Amino acid sequence: MKIALTLLMLAAFIVPPGALGAPTTTPKGAGTPDPPADAPRFNYTNMNRVQHTVPEGVPQVLRMGASTMEFRATQRLQLNISQAPGLKATYFVMNMEANRNMHVNMYAGNEPPADTPEAAFGLRRYFTLEGNGTEPFRATLRLFIDESGLAEELGRSIIRERLTWCYWNGTGWENVPSQLGEDGFLEAETSHFSVWTVAENKKPNEVPTPEIPGVPETTRAFNYTDRVPEAFKWTLREQESNTLQFRNTAMVFNSTRQVRLEITAQEDFRQRLFRLELQPSEALELQVRLQAERPVEVGSPENGLGFYCVIEPNATIPLQARLGVEVDSVLLQEQLGREVDPQRLTWAYWDGETWRNVESRLDDEGVLTAETDHFSAWTVLLEAESTEPTEPTQPETPTKQPPYLLYGAAALLILAVAGFLYTRKAQ
I need a surface site. Which of 100, 164, 202, 298 has the fewest CB within 10 A? Predict the structure, then answer.
């Protein structure tokens, strides 16, 4: 590819004297920002192949066809630029930091080179860059993102926050850390040349968010309903929520740090929704096993629902996590053959000797959640009915006894009065 590209460029760079022209003010084109006011501008709007020298420390703005290109360099930069006829309007910037003068061949087009596949969810902007030596350098690549113009051109909307620079590594497109600035340019740094493009960082099988209780509206959803996961690999980006729909269950994951997941769920596992929210102190790798049968390493739980989740991290680090599982009363009744009070359900973990209940909450969406700072084997139990406290027994009121003493006292008083009256009469 490199030899053919170089020969093509050299054959095309035979231009008549004066064709490079003098600095001139040119239209900036629709959907592009204004070039720097202090940068000389060169008009090559009628040409698809040019040679141009970028002096040390002096920015240059080139207008070729419908595209604008801006170059800066710490050393003199000799450019051989060619572009495909009909290249869609764009604003491309390359800043070079090198220890010596450099010579760079560049080809820009809406299609990748013949031996390179298209990037999935790409913006159809490809830049093939080749240097003339092996001296170390640093380059900053920038592309202006015209969201409305790209949506019209591609026939689909794009999400700016998911865009990333990527390059062809010989076997696949490899993403590079990228930042979208307030000026609308997507920026990335590199120390090597290749075929570069910008793509929306989507994964295959992405679908609209399913209407399942407990699934956040903002989650990115992926449909794998043609399989039951067996050692299924998935990378969860930090600060992102993903929903994975499999044949037998749906799973929601989100994390404040990147997490590499390996997921297995037995065919008999039939919970409609499992959710795991993570706040680890650093990037993490997790093995998640969802089972309908009891793992051999744990004891049999009392009043278990036949649901087990075994989570194994690759390292012991500080973390906070929230487990969640949808509670479907009808499904539970079918599985257990009896009615179940959802308010009596609780998460529990195996501590090596016994199952330990964890304070759990059934939210408004019917998802039973519990928080933890460690991973183990987990299950959901039906707590035993609490014994209602009996009313305190009131002491019996003693039977009222006749007031014999009172009667006696009254009789004595009557006798005394009668005696007194009789004695006075006798006198």
Answer: 100
pLDDT digits (tens, 9 = 90+) for 337-384: 777 888 899 999 999 999 999 999 999 899 999 999 999 999 999 887
Instruction: Give the residue from 121, 123, 161 showing the smallest Cα distance to 143.
Output: 123
- C-alpha–C-alpha distance, residues 189 and 177, integer Å: 8
Rounded distance, CA 128 to CA 189, Å?
15
CA distance 326 to 338: 18
CA pair distance 190, 7, nearest whole angstrom: 26
Task: Write down the pLDDT at residue 23.
Answer: 42
Is the pTM higher than 0.90?
A: no
User: Residues, the chain, total?
Assistant: 427
220 Cβ contact partners less than 8 Å away, ≥ 6 residues apart: 206, 209, 240, 241, 242, 243
User: What does the pLDDT read at residue 12?
Assistant: 39
Of the candidates 371, 385, 308, 305, the residue with the CA atom closest to the CA atom of residue 343: 385
How far, rounded to the nearest angstrom, does the alpha carbon of residue 227 sit from its chain's CA centroid? 22
Question: What dihedral angle (degrees, nearest 10) is formed by the CA atoms of 114, 120, 122, 127?
Answer: -30
Cβ pair 89, 149 in contact under 8 A? yes
Residue/partner pairs of 383-392 with CB below 8 Å, 24 or more apart = 383/303, 383/344, 383/345, 383/346, 383/357, 384/303, 385/344
How far is it, in rounded angstroms, from Cα 79 to Cα 28?
21
Which amino acid, 55? Answer: P
pLDDT in the model for residue 27: 43
